[in-house]
Amino acid sequence: MRTSLRRLLPLAVAALPLALSPVAHADSGTTYSARLDSINGSGGSGMLTLRLNGNQATIDESWSGLAASFGGGDYPHVQHIHIGAKGQCPTKSADTNNDGVISTTEGAGAYGGIGTTLSVKGDTSPAAGTNIKIAPGGSSTDYHRTIDLSQDTVSALQAGTGVVVVHGLDPASLSKKAQNEKSDLVPSLPLAATSPALCGPISSMPSGGVATGVGSTGGVEDLGVLAAGGGLLAAAGAMIALRRRTAVKAV
User: Fold this and answer.
1) Which residue in 26, 28, 160, 241 has the fewest CB atoms around it within 10 Å?
2) Which residues pair with 60 in a beta bridge?
3) Phi first, then psi: what are they for 200, rounded to 5°?
4) What is the pTM of this model?
Protein backbone atom coordinates (compact mmCIF):
# COMPACT_ATOMS: atom_id res chain seq x y z
CA MET A 1 0.00 0.00 0.00
CA ARG A 2 2.80 2.42 0.95
CA THR A 3 4.53 1.68 -2.35
CA SER A 4 1.37 2.52 -4.35
CA LEU A 5 0.94 5.80 -2.48
CA ARG A 6 4.52 6.78 -3.12
CA ARG A 7 3.98 6.26 -6.84
CA LEU A 8 0.62 8.04 -7.12
CA LEU A 9 1.29 11.10 -4.96
CA PRO A 10 4.05 12.62 -7.15
CA LEU A 11 1.84 12.15 -10.23
CA ALA A 12 -1.10 13.96 -8.64
CA VAL A 13 1.07 16.84 -7.39
CA ALA A 14 2.80 17.17 -10.77
CA ALA A 15 -0.57 17.44 -12.51
CA LEU A 16 -1.74 20.39 -10.40
CA PRO A 17 0.12 23.14 -12.29
CA LEU A 18 -1.35 21.89 -15.57
CA ALA A 19 -4.90 21.89 -14.24
CA LEU A 20 -4.59 25.34 -12.64
CA SER A 21 -2.69 26.99 -15.48
CA PRO A 22 -4.64 29.70 -17.36
CA VAL A 23 -3.22 28.41 -20.65
CA ALA A 24 -4.56 24.90 -20.18
CA HIS A 25 -7.16 25.62 -22.88
CA ALA A 26 -7.06 27.62 -26.10
CA ASP A 27 -8.93 30.95 -26.17
CA SER A 28 -11.07 30.77 -29.29
CA GLY A 29 -12.90 34.06 -28.66
CA THR A 30 -16.62 34.53 -28.17
CA THR A 31 -19.41 32.96 -30.19
CA TYR A 32 -22.63 34.89 -30.80
CA SER A 33 -25.89 33.74 -32.33
CA ALA A 34 -29.20 35.15 -33.50
CA ARG A 35 -32.47 33.52 -34.44
CA LEU A 36 -33.94 35.40 -37.38
CA ASP A 37 -37.70 35.68 -37.09
CA SER A 38 -40.24 36.98 -39.57
CA ILE A 39 -41.18 40.64 -39.38
CA ASN A 40 -43.78 42.51 -41.47
CA GLY A 41 -45.35 39.16 -42.37
CA SER A 42 -42.43 38.08 -44.56
CA GLY A 43 -42.91 34.41 -43.70
CA GLY A 44 -39.15 33.80 -43.58
CA SER A 45 -36.86 32.46 -40.87
CA GLY A 46 -33.18 31.79 -40.31
CA MET A 47 -30.17 31.57 -38.01
CA LEU A 48 -26.85 33.39 -37.73
CA THR A 49 -23.67 32.43 -35.87
CA LEU A 50 -20.79 34.86 -35.40
CA ARG A 51 -17.39 33.85 -33.99
CA LEU A 52 -15.45 36.89 -32.80
CA ASN A 53 -11.68 37.05 -32.22
CA GLY A 54 -10.54 40.58 -31.55
CA ASN A 55 -12.38 42.57 -34.19
CA GLN A 56 -12.42 39.75 -36.76
CA ALA A 57 -15.76 37.99 -37.20
CA THR A 58 -16.48 34.74 -39.00
CA ILE A 59 -20.17 34.72 -39.88
CA ASP A 60 -22.33 31.77 -40.90
CA GLU A 61 -25.94 32.53 -41.73
CA SER A 62 -28.84 30.81 -43.42
CA TRP A 63 -32.36 32.00 -44.07
CA SER A 64 -35.25 31.03 -46.33
CA GLY A 65 -38.82 31.92 -47.18
CA LEU A 66 -38.22 35.49 -48.39
CA ALA A 67 -39.22 37.21 -51.63
CA ALA A 68 -37.55 35.43 -54.54
CA SER A 69 -37.50 37.79 -57.53
CA PHE A 70 -37.41 41.48 -58.28
CA GLY A 71 -37.28 43.23 -61.66
CA GLY A 72 -36.61 40.00 -63.53
CA GLY A 73 -33.73 38.90 -61.28
CA ASP A 74 -33.06 37.57 -57.79
CA TYR A 75 -34.57 39.74 -55.10
CA PRO A 76 -31.68 41.57 -53.33
CA HIS A 77 -31.92 41.35 -49.54
CA VAL A 78 -29.62 43.93 -47.96
CA GLN A 79 -28.72 42.88 -44.43
CA HIS A 80 -26.87 44.41 -41.52
CA ILE A 81 -25.86 44.26 -37.88
CA HIS A 82 -27.73 47.20 -36.39
CA ILE A 83 -26.39 48.87 -33.25
CA GLY A 84 -26.85 51.78 -30.88
CA ALA A 85 -30.37 51.23 -29.54
CA LYS A 86 -32.23 48.73 -27.35
CA GLY A 87 -30.91 45.54 -28.97
CA GLN A 88 -34.46 44.46 -29.78
CA CYS A 89 -36.75 43.81 -32.73
CA PRO A 90 -39.63 46.27 -33.11
CA THR A 91 -43.24 45.43 -32.31
CA LYS A 92 -46.28 46.38 -34.37
CA SER A 93 -46.59 49.58 -32.35
CA ALA A 94 -43.57 50.91 -34.26
CA ASP A 95 -45.79 51.30 -37.35
CA THR A 96 -46.56 54.93 -36.60
CA ASN A 97 -48.18 55.79 -39.96
CA ASN A 98 -50.48 52.74 -39.80
CA ASP A 99 -49.74 51.45 -43.29
CA GLY A 100 -49.23 47.90 -42.01
CA VAL A 101 -45.44 47.98 -42.51
CA ILE A 102 -42.70 48.71 -39.99
CA SER A 103 -40.27 50.64 -42.19
CA THR A 104 -36.53 50.65 -41.49
CA THR A 105 -36.65 54.07 -39.85
CA GLU A 106 -39.75 53.20 -37.81
CA GLY A 107 -37.93 50.17 -36.40
CA ALA A 108 -34.72 52.05 -35.65
CA GLY A 109 -35.82 52.91 -32.13
CA ALA A 110 -35.56 49.20 -31.27
CA TYR A 111 -32.49 48.10 -33.24
CA GLY A 112 -30.62 51.33 -34.08
CA GLY A 113 -28.55 52.28 -37.10
CA ILE A 114 -26.24 50.19 -39.29
CA GLY A 115 -23.00 49.09 -37.64
CA THR A 116 -21.87 46.55 -40.26
CA THR A 117 -23.25 45.61 -43.67
CA LEU A 118 -23.39 41.85 -44.24
CA SER A 119 -22.52 42.04 -47.93
CA VAL A 120 -21.43 39.05 -50.00
CA LYS A 121 -18.30 40.89 -51.19
CA GLY A 122 -16.52 44.20 -50.91
CA ASP A 123 -17.53 46.98 -48.53
CA THR A 124 -19.03 46.06 -45.16
CA SER A 125 -19.30 49.58 -43.76
CA PRO A 126 -22.60 51.41 -43.16
CA ALA A 127 -21.98 53.22 -46.46
CA ALA A 128 -22.74 49.94 -48.28
CA GLY A 129 -26.00 49.48 -46.41
CA THR A 130 -28.30 50.03 -49.40
CA ASN A 131 -26.03 48.67 -52.14
CA ILE A 132 -28.20 45.94 -53.64
CA LYS A 133 -25.40 44.81 -55.97
CA ILE A 134 -23.47 43.23 -53.09
CA ALA A 135 -26.44 41.87 -51.13
CA PRO A 136 -27.49 38.22 -51.03
CA GLY A 137 -30.29 37.49 -53.48
CA GLY A 138 -33.21 35.12 -53.88
CA SER A 139 -35.59 33.45 -51.48
CA SER A 140 -32.84 31.77 -49.42
CA THR A 141 -29.16 32.06 -48.64
CA ASP A 142 -26.23 30.21 -47.10
CA TYR A 143 -23.87 32.98 -46.16
CA HIS A 144 -20.28 32.56 -44.99
CA ARG A 145 -17.77 35.37 -44.70
CA THR A 146 -14.91 36.52 -42.45
CA ILE A 147 -14.77 40.30 -42.03
CA ASP A 148 -13.36 42.96 -39.73
CA LEU A 149 -15.91 44.71 -37.53
CA SER A 150 -15.76 48.33 -36.45
CA GLN A 151 -15.10 48.97 -32.78
CA ASP A 152 -18.65 50.32 -32.44
CA THR A 153 -20.05 47.00 -33.68
CA VAL A 154 -17.76 44.98 -31.39
CA SER A 155 -18.81 47.11 -28.42
CA ALA A 156 -22.49 46.61 -29.30
CA LEU A 157 -22.04 42.82 -29.44
CA GLN A 158 -20.32 42.84 -26.06
CA ALA A 159 -23.06 45.03 -24.60
CA GLY A 160 -25.83 42.83 -26.02
CA THR A 161 -27.28 45.57 -28.24
CA GLY A 162 -26.49 44.13 -31.69
CA VAL A 163 -29.39 43.06 -33.91
CA VAL A 164 -29.37 41.32 -37.30
CA VAL A 165 -31.89 42.74 -39.77
CA VAL A 166 -32.52 41.33 -43.26
CA HIS A 167 -34.51 43.64 -45.54
CA GLY A 168 -36.78 43.12 -48.53
CA LEU A 169 -40.49 42.24 -48.63
CA ASP A 170 -42.75 40.85 -51.33
CA PRO A 171 -44.69 43.94 -52.50
CA ALA A 172 -47.77 41.82 -53.15
CA SER A 173 -47.96 41.00 -49.44
CA LEU A 174 -48.35 44.65 -48.43
CA SER A 175 -51.47 46.76 -48.03
CA LYS A 176 -52.54 48.89 -51.00
CA LYS A 177 -51.40 51.97 -49.14
CA ALA A 178 -47.93 50.51 -48.54
CA GLN A 179 -47.61 49.23 -52.10
CA ASN A 180 -47.79 52.80 -53.36
CA GLU A 181 -45.22 54.16 -50.94
CA LYS A 182 -41.56 54.80 -51.67
CA SER A 183 -38.65 53.51 -49.59
CA ASP A 184 -37.76 55.66 -46.60
CA LEU A 185 -34.08 54.95 -47.38
CA VAL A 186 -33.88 54.96 -51.20
CA PRO A 187 -36.78 56.97 -52.70
CA SER A 188 -36.19 55.46 -56.14
CA LEU A 189 -37.22 52.06 -54.75
CA PRO A 190 -40.59 50.91 -53.41
CA LEU A 191 -41.11 50.71 -49.65
CA ALA A 192 -41.04 46.90 -49.79
CA ALA A 193 -37.48 46.81 -51.14
CA THR A 194 -35.83 48.15 -47.99
CA SER A 195 -38.30 47.32 -45.21
CA PRO A 196 -37.30 44.68 -42.61
CA ALA A 197 -38.15 41.07 -43.41
CA LEU A 198 -36.18 39.19 -40.72
CA CYS A 199 -34.93 40.35 -37.34
CA GLY A 200 -32.97 38.77 -34.49
CA PRO A 201 -31.17 40.12 -31.40
CA ILE A 202 -27.60 38.83 -31.10
CA SER A 203 -26.56 37.08 -27.87
CA SER A 204 -23.34 35.42 -26.77
CA MET A 205 -22.93 31.78 -25.80
CA PRO A 206 -19.96 29.94 -24.23
CA SER A 207 -18.36 26.69 -25.32
CA GLY A 208 -20.99 23.98 -25.23
CA GLY A 209 -23.75 26.17 -26.62
CA VAL A 210 -25.45 27.48 -23.48
CA ALA A 211 -26.52 31.09 -24.00
CA THR A 212 -25.19 33.61 -21.46
CA GLY A 213 -26.57 36.89 -22.75
CA VAL A 214 -23.62 39.29 -22.63
CA GLY A 215 -19.90 38.84 -22.16
CA SER A 216 -17.00 36.45 -22.52
CA THR A 217 -16.97 32.71 -21.90
CA GLY A 218 -13.84 32.84 -19.74
CA GLY A 219 -15.70 32.55 -16.44
CA VAL A 220 -17.41 29.30 -17.44
CA GLU A 221 -14.16 27.75 -18.66
CA ASP A 222 -12.33 28.86 -15.50
CA LEU A 223 -14.95 27.10 -13.37
CA GLY A 224 -14.07 23.85 -15.10
CA VAL A 225 -10.36 24.42 -14.50
CA LEU A 226 -10.93 25.20 -10.84
CA ALA A 227 -13.09 22.11 -10.44
CA ALA A 228 -10.38 19.93 -11.97
CA GLY A 229 -7.74 21.49 -9.77
CA GLY A 230 -9.90 21.08 -6.68
CA GLY A 231 -10.41 17.41 -7.47
CA LEU A 232 -6.67 16.81 -7.75
CA LEU A 233 -6.02 18.69 -4.51
CA ALA A 234 -8.63 16.58 -2.73
CA ALA A 235 -7.14 13.39 -4.13
CA ALA A 236 -3.64 14.41 -3.09
CA GLY A 237 -4.87 15.32 0.40
CA ALA A 238 -6.65 11.99 0.77
CA MET A 239 -3.54 10.07 -0.24
CA ILE A 240 -1.40 12.01 2.24
CA ALA A 241 -3.87 11.31 5.05
CA LEU A 242 -4.06 7.62 4.14
CA ARG A 243 -0.30 7.39 4.05
CA ARG A 244 -0.08 8.87 7.55
CA ARG A 245 -2.67 6.42 8.92
CA THR A 246 -0.83 3.50 7.32
CA ALA A 247 2.44 4.66 8.83
CA VAL A 248 0.87 4.90 12.33
CA LYS A 249 -0.51 1.35 12.08
CA ALA A 250 2.87 0.07 10.97
CA VAL A 251 4.49 1.52 14.10
Assistant:
1) 26
2) 49, 144
3) -160, 120
4) 0.73
